[in-house]
Amino acid sequence: MSTAGFSIARQIKLVLDKMEAAALRRPESLQYAKPRLVAVSKTKSVDMIIEAYDAGQRHFGENYVVELYDKASDFELQDRCRDIRWHFIGHLQRNKVSKLLDVPNLFVVETVDSIRLAKAINETWQRLNKIDPLNVMAQVNTSGEESKSGCAPEEVVQLVKYIKEECPRISLVGLMTIGSFDHDPSTGPNPDFQALFKARENVCKELDMRPQDLDLSMGMSNDFEHAIEMGSTSVRVGSTIFGSRSAPETSHEHKETELHASA
Ligand SMILES: *Cc1c(COP(=O)(O)O)cnc(C)c1O
C-alpha cells in the first residue's frame, strides 16, 4: 500500500521520537509516565493496520462502531495482531453500545460523555459476563463548541463519581478531549489542554483519586508534542502515520483544503 518514500514504520518511528523529546520537556511533576501513542486508523485499510502492528504499534483508534467492528473481526488481522488494543474514540450512541462491546480486543472506550451512556455500557458489559471490567474514559467538551461531544467541564466530577460508585463493571482510566482545531501553540498554551488538565485536578481533589491513575487523552497529528508538554499521557495520531484521509472529516482539514484551493 505504501507509495514510494512513505513508510508507515518510518512515520511511527518519527512520531515516537518526537513524543520522547516532548516528554523530556515536561515539568518534573509530569515526568511519571511515558506517553502512549494511539495510531488512529479510521478510513485506512486492514493491511495498513497490520503493517503498523508489524512495526511494533499496539494501540489503535477508530471512530465508527461498524468500521471498528469489521476491522477488529477481520480474520487475517485477528491472526496476525493478537495483542492489538483498540481504542474507541468516536461519538457513541446508546443503540450502538452492544455492537461496540462485541469488538474483539476492545481496550478502552474513550468517549463516555453522559451518565446514561455509562449506565448502558456498564449494563451491557455485565450482560456479556466479562471477567475484567471494561476501561473507559470520560470525554470532556473543553472548547464548548456545540459540534463537539463530551460533557461540560463542570459535569466531569459528577460523571466520574457515578461511574466509580454505580458502575462496577467499568473502570475509569482517564479523561479525553478533542478540543478546537485551530489553536496556534506559538501563541501560548492550548486552552483545551489546560481545561482537561484542570478537570483532572478537580476530579482527583473531589473524589480522592491520584492524577497518576488517570490518563489524559489529548493531542493529534498537528499538536501532539504540545499536548505532551502540557501533560498528555495518550496522544491520538492519524494522518501523520497513515497519510492524509481522502474524505475530510474535521473542520481543520476542511480549512486546509480551502487554503490549498485558494492558493
Ligand atoms: C481523526 C481523529 C484523530 C486523529 O487525527 P489526525 O489529525 O489525523 O492525527 C484523533 N482523535 C480523534 C477523536 C479523531 O477523530
TrEMBL record:
One of its GO terms (molecular function) is pyridoxal phosphate binding. It comes from the Eukaryota. The keyword NADP does not apply. Keywords: Pyridoxal phosphate. InterPro entries: Ala_racemase_N, PLP-binding_barrel, PyrdxlP_homeostasis. The keyword Iron-sulfur does not apply. The modification N6-(pyridoxal phosphate)lysine is found at residue 42. SUPFAM superfamilies: PLP-binding barrel. Residues 250-263 have a biased composition (Basic and acidic residues). It holds the Pfam family Ala_racemase_N. Its cofactor is pyridoxal 5'-phosphate. Residues 34-245 form the Alanine racemase N-terminal domain. Residues 243-263 are annotated as: Disordered. Pyridoxal 5'-phosphate (PLP)-binding protein, which may be involved in intracellular homeostatic regulation of pyridoxal 5'-phosphate (PLP), the active form of vitamin B6. Belongs to the pyridoxal phosphate-binding protein YggS/PROSC family. This is Pyridoxal phosphate homeostasis protein.
